[in-house]
Amino acid sequence: MTLKIRIDDSAPPYEQVRAQISEQARSGLLPVGYRLPTVRGLAETLGLAANTVAKAYRALEADGVIETRGRNGTFVAAAGSAAEREAASAAQAYAERVRRLGVAQPAALTAVREALRAAYAD
Hints:
Elements: H1 13-27, E1 35-36, H2 39-46, H3 50-62, E2 66-68, E3 74-76, H4 79-101, H5 105-119
Antiparallel strand pairs: 1-3, 2-3
Helix pairs in contact: 1-3, 2-3
């Protein structure tokens, strides 16, 4: 696993760690079951505070990208299925909400397309 933290980047260091691990897991560079370094170990390697790496790991775990197995360590999870389940759940909640609000289906779809376009513009 190779991570590079850029101090001059506008993204905070924890977000850089989160994004790079997430991308490497999604691309298969970090395969499912790959054991990640400890929080302290990765922090030391990157020259970051342990709390910075811990924050990134918490965000990755919340996203379903990694899983902590207690004292056994932190591993890359089968993120595709977890991420897809969460996306489907969020989509279902959105659909129910816009229906209750009386938003027509074409307008609801337009709102989603615009939100996705904005989110993926990076």
